[in-house]
Amino acid sequence: MDDKSVEFLKSVVGNDLDRDLLDILSDQKLSFDEQVEALLKKMEETQ
Amino acid sequence: MIDYDYSLIIDEGDEQRTFSPNLPKSIKNIDFITGRNSSGKSTLMNIIAAGMYGNKVSSVNPTLRGDIDSLLNSDHKKLKFDILITNPADPIQLKVTKADNEKKAVLMESTDGGVHFSALSQNEFERKYNLIYDIPDNPRTRIKEISRQLMGVYQAYEDNLQDFDSKLTKLITEVRDASNKKKAGELQEQIDKLTEKQKNNEDVIIPRATERIDTIAHIKALKEFVNSRAEVLKAQKDFDEMKKFVPNANISPVKQQRQYDNARRTVASMALTIDTEIESMCENVLKVAEKKDEPIIRQMQALKFTNPARRLALPESYSAVITAFSSLCSSYSHSCSPQDIQERNMLKQLLDVAIQYKNTTLEMPGFDSLDSFTSVLDEKFREADAKTKKSTTAQATVKDCMNLNESVKDLVKKINAIVPPSINQSEDDSIKQQRYNALKKNLEDCKSNAEKIARSAAALGINDATYMRIDSEYQHNAPELCAKTVPGLTAELEAQNKIVTSAKIENQSITGTLKYDEETLIRILSHKDHPLKDRLDDLIKMQQGINHLRQQLIKFEKNQRVIDDGHYGTLSKTDPYVVALWNYLGKVIGIIKHREQTYTVSSINTIDNIILTDTGKTIYINDMGTGQTQVTYLRSQLTKYDGRKIIALFDEVATMDRSTLNVLFDEFMSMQKKGKLLVGITVQPADADISVEEMGM
After folding, report:
1. Going by fewer Cβ within 10 Å, which terminus of chain B is more open, N or C?
2. What is the ipTM of this complex?
């Protein structure tokens, strides 16, 4: 996924978690554990 | 740099055409190639794409994918090539080799400036490189392609979400299990129950059923053994019965006649002997018989077997006559006392002694002479003999009567066994013969079956010597089974076998379940404190978020489909998705040249074909030159950078003049400097010899 497509989707989804998911899932370099860790961190920051 | 060489031989039937590079074999990474049609302008691009899975990857224009496939797989084309691409911006190198006898090229990558190379699979290549190979025909419509490409983005996200969701579900289960004491307890309880069930199957159900199977098998074999013998006996009896009616089956008529004649002669001879005996007995009895008893003796005397035997018949009432005669003799046998007989015998002995001394001078006291003594003795004997004669004759005759009875019985048996030879077989005889054959066959079958059953039974220790004892034991130990018939036992045997099979299958299943449960339990017990135990709620929220995002992506796909069809459908022009899409397209295109002016694009509306610039200018796509729209589209392909190095090959960019192309070349060079572009080749037809203009680093 290219950056512009990701940004476009982030602009049309409903909430922060959706946006975080889009960000994390578009980063193909991250392993599953790293994706979960990053999402949990973002969720923590949002709370 | 791109260092390359190739040889392409095309077999055209009447001739073979060979193509080789007509450009320098070492050129820069960014090139603008021009030349006449069929001058080989596109060959280099085709070969680069062929070496990089260009016939398979989706980012290659479908028409070109077909061309590349044809280049690699056509029987009439022989292609071999070597390419080495080095990147001036970093140590990345790609090397491709294809032999002319191979259908596939071998792609290798070096990340250390060419010191080491390793093979690059299609998946690995697509993960690291973005091969764009396109012919930007019909440029105005191609701008809309950018919008359509979003469908691929949605699909990619959905795939990622599904994979992520599946892994997340497993993680949540692990976290839950790890902190779930109750679950551990439940698992342990289930393991205990299953273990007990398995043990019960192993120690009780299976052995009990197996033992019962053994008992049933024995009883069944026993019954079959006894039944088969009874069947043989019955078949033998039926057959023997039938033999009386068809005794001469399979015997020739001549032999039948001879046997018949012999049998008749035998019975005639026997009858003559019997008649002689009767005559003799009657004469003896008549001598001692009383007058009143003579009719019985005369009846006996009149009994003749000789003639009736010739006719293969028997005298009427012969049995009653013999019985009456025998009874009469029996009554005579008690006409004197045993003492009388003893006295008579003694007198006889004395008389015999006296006769021996006749003509001698022996003197007998009280008598004149031995002769006078002998005369007196003879008189006394005659008196005593007369007194016992009736009884002794009768006793001897009673014995003779018993022998006579045996002889008559033998005669009767022989007469009954004689059947005349069947010379002309009647219809009735034919039916009898068929019945005879059927019974004979049945007897043979029964015997064969009985032998077979006996062999099986012998394996279980059942034979003629043991079956009664074994039967008696089972009658005592398993009377309910002994009461069943063979089909009933067979059904019971099947039922017990089913019990064993089911128990074994169940145990196998239990083994699998136990393995899983025990592993789960070990996992639960060994991860008492999962690192994410306190974040379980967040993980669940994350999963809910995934589902929410999926739903939205489905909705976006639906919207996109409507827009790609060129209308708004139920969407309003101010729908957030529509507005965001136009802005996204504006960002992808970035800048455009229109009527010699360069503008920064704010949004592109592909339904109304309107481009809005940041200065508030409205440009209608249909008013734009095709060259401009073409470069706009190609540039957009480059600007959607996703982290992968781009290998951009643009063929037949016919509608762009040099100033328009410079926009594209500038983008190439800018990306090369940033390390985003590995190759950028553009080909344009021209009415001149083939040439290459090299650019960039």
Report:
1. C
2. 0.95
